[in-house]
Amino acid sequence: MATQQPSPAPSAPALSRPYPMAKTGYGKRSVPDRSPARADAFALLPARERYVAGFVDHLPDGASMDVKSLAKQLPLYGQQAVGSALRALSVAGHLRRVRCLVGEGEQVRWVFRTFWSRTARDNEWWGTQLAAEGRESSPVVPAATPPSGAPAEEPPTAPAVPQQRTPEPTPAPAPAPAPADAPSPAYLALARLGRADSRLALSAADCAVLEARAAEWLARGVTTEYLTQALTAGLPGQIGSPVGFVRRRLADK
Q1: Is 116:56 a contact under the CB 8 Å cutoff?
Q2: What is the pLDDT of residues 136-172, one digit of tens each?
Q3: Chain centroid, CA 128 distance in Å
Q4: pLDDT single digits (tens) 63-115
């Protein structure tokens, strides 16, 4: 009679650092009547906007939505790129960042609130939705840019150096060493999963949690392309937790 091998004990789920949360009422607010998460939910968006949209879509309501906070979480983009992506998502109809007057009496101030819709909506729909929220809003004014027509200052002229009779050959500069804190191939492979499928957009903390497991794959000789394909092939219709799903695939496959 064959001896049945005991099944391995289920491993603990991978947990990333908690998402930064805004003060009550100031973070992400998901609008009602959203469509379910699908692989093609943001398929019509450019790659960067699709990546950021997938990440924002998985954020819990109340999460900080300012550019600085999001740039700290996203492993591939900085503040300028995130800001541009959010503006593009607003134009596409997924996001509205509005300025609202809150408080009573002399204790009133203007604050920003961010509303999110997985389904792209037109301006008329957003106007009705924000009116139903009972809040007055005004469009966000983009930061001013320096005028492009201003004359550029000429750089100072360097003093002339007498030509030498027999100049010494200049040695080729040594290649700059890679930064000590450069992301590893395993980290970058995880960070780029959101480009393959926006539902797998991981935070920087998620990538750090899973980096060692992904590095084990690369240590066995597989390429980052193979690793990406293995983690993104045949995805289910619903992915509740990107970090938990990727961790499970890294272990099971």
Answers
A1: yes
A2: 444 433 333 333 343 333 333 333 434 444 445 555 5
A3: 29
A4: 999 999 999 999 999 999 999 999 999 999 999 988 777 667 777 777 778 99
Question: Under a CB-based contact definition with an 8 Å cutoff, are residues 58 and 70 in contact?
Answer: no
Domains of the chain: 28-132 (1.10.10), 185-252 (no CATH)
Contacting residues for 42 by C-beta, under 8 A, at least 6 apart: 49, 50, 53, 54, 57, 94, 198
Contacts of 194 (CB under 8 A, 6+ apart): 51, 54, 55, 76, 200, 201, 202
Tokens matching residue 41: 């939910």
Q: Are 108 and 220 in contact (CB under 8 A)?
A: no
The model's pTM is 0.70
